[in-house]
Design goal:
The structure is a homodimer. With about 325 residues, chain A is α/β, with parallel strands linked by helices. In chain A, the strands form 4 sheets. In chain A, strands 3, 5, 6, 9, 10, 17 and 18 form a 7-stranded mixed sheet that branches. In chain A, strands 13-12-11-14-15-16 form a 6-stranded parallel sheet, sandwiched between helices. Chains A, B: InterPro entries: ADH-like_C, ADH-like_N, ADH_Zn_CS, GroES-like_sf, NAD(P)-bd_dom_sf.
């Protein structure tokens, strides 16, 4: 089959790789119908996050089950499915509590030895603990909204949950990427009354407004109960903490690149600011968010502003890196 | 009157200072009957926290109201009262929410221009928003337990609340000072089933066991849902985060001295660890904890292992600095 690999910084290629096959009785093989490029893939693209040359890449996909192992009970060949950005066994203590990202048997798509999402097919370990079945008659117009639940929408939701977004409350969002924008949508969905988006790029702030942002400001504001940090730089964390109201919380989901210098612990101490969040347990949120998407009540699809085929994946990385595109969807 | 002043590092003196007098209609003057020396006073004593030469010191006291301004409604001359370690107006948005430590009119006892707690009397701004009345017939044996509510017991409780201590849960406490020990007591009071104290000093771990610690270990353990950080060094924070179970929380109340290097943001991200806490809004907890002390159900007084008069305050600082004493109570 053909799949995306990363050969080095700025060197993304689509290559012929071995077809995936069942290895364990809990495995499934999924033929990918839709995938995407994530803002976090750009850290690897830029050489900031290390990758082995030739490693697969991509961690967001949906598709059709092609084969299942003897122990798989929840999905069958022909089923449409979506995967969260990590696999998980579904039965350990952490999975039972909903913290699927801490599963001791879990892993990240594209890690050495596994398939990535940006390819024609994927071997899915622990299919019962990982995949979520989609309706067979999923309308075409809901494919993009559903796809967003593999990562960005679930991650934005996690930021909002960790920041303690409450009905009637005020929220600020740091980061105008797809996750930050989904954070706006999540805050709106959770009942926030005022949602302040920090951003300057008109094409992105337009989506923020569409998603429910009531205020768009270029610079830091002040005194917001719940702040969503969706960037991952020290500077974004510094901004997030500084605009949080005393006694409030920062929900952070930006993958930290850099150290802890942005976490001003003395300021947090003096003002009783809570810092929560982390890698989003998207699998836990999938059923709830999927129900809203299927009901037509949640539509994060405006974050996909570029649709490409597998061959154009290298161009998709370049477009996102140069901020010409917000988020690329790959159709097969 | 006579009061404790700090002239410089290791230079604590008891000096003659002006008698306090009412300045504003909301003021009260309190004659101090009991005060104490706090572990956080040692940061000033050691020269780590800057103080102006001659500045007053001490922020934990109880006493008898001597005079009140025209607007004071909640206390009257002759009333026994206790003060939390900061004053607050009691009516602003933050005070109304219980975050008295963020009151814009608030201040810390001993800050330039104010009286400190380690003296014969104190002018109390915003007496209605600050003081809590005690029973006129407070038994002598409850004076020490009540005094602990001015800071250490309320602060230990804040750590436990911020760490999300739950009934039946497991808690670890980093820091074997008076606040850490009160954190053990708070965790026990909140229903924790297993309480692990990290400590080596037998005299202190003996109090921890008395307060409800089920395990005393010299080194870091692993995998605890709620961790109380009651030291304030980078190393203590590093330990606290590393022993928190994925998805758990650190409640920190150790005044941060040093930077954010102990906050391993990447580890927190990967394991979804929440960091909460800060300067304890002790005034908010006073009514609830006082009720338990008066009912004989809460007794943090074993943290006072040294009782001195005002003249011995300099010796009290030295004894605590050299870890010969855990916490000194000053009686007048």
């Amino acid at each position: 089959m053909r799949a995306t690999v990363i050969r080095g910084p700025q060197d993304i290629r689509v290559e012929e790789v071995p077809d995936p096959a069942l290895r364990h009785p809990g495995d499934a093989v999924v033929r990918v119908t839709h995938a995407c490029i994530c803002g976090s893939d750009l850290w690897a693209y830029r050489g900031v996050a290390a990758r082995e040359p030739g490693q697969r890449i991509g961690h967001e996909f949906m598709g059709v089950v092609e084969a299942v192992g003897a122990e798989v009970a929840s999905v069958a060949p022909g089923d449409r499915v979506i995967a969260p950005f990590v696999w998980s066994d579904g039965v350990c203590g952490y999975c039972t509590e909903g913290l699927f990202t801490s599963c001791p048997h879990g892993g990240f798509w594209g890690q050495p030895g596994s398939d990535g999402g940006q390819g024609e097919a994927v071997r899915v370990p622990f299919a019962d603990g990982t995949l979520v079945r989609l309706p067979a008659d999923l309308p075409a117009e809901l494919e993009a909204p559903v796809l967003s639940l593999a990562d960005v929408m679930g991650t934005g939701h996690h930021a909002a949950v960790a920041a303690g977004v409450r009905r009637g409350g005020t929220v600020a969002v740091v980061g105008d990427g797809a996750v930050g924008l989904c954070g706006v949508l999540a805050a709106k969905r959770l009942g926030a009354e005022r949602i302040v988006m920090l951003g300057r790029h008109e094409d992105r702030t337009a989506i923020a407004r569409k998603f429910g942002a009531t205020d768009v400001v270029p610079e830091r504001g002040e005194g917001v109960q719940a702040v969503l940090e969706a960037v991952g730089t020290e500077d974004a964390m510094r901004t997030a903490i500084s605009i949080t109201r005393d006694g409030g919380a920062v929900g952070y989901v930006g993958v930290p690149h850099g150290g802890s210098a942005g976490v001003d612990i003395r300021q947090m101490f003096d003002r009783n600011i809570t810092l929560g969040g982390g890698v989003a347990p998207v699998r836990a949120y999938l059923p709830e968010l999927l129900a809203d998407v299927l009901a037509g009540e949640l539509d994060p699809s405006p974050v996909f502003d570029l649709v490409i085929g597998l061959d154009q994946v290298p161009d998709g990385y370049a477009a996102m890196d140069e901020r010409r595109a917000l988020k690329a969807m790959i159709t097969f």
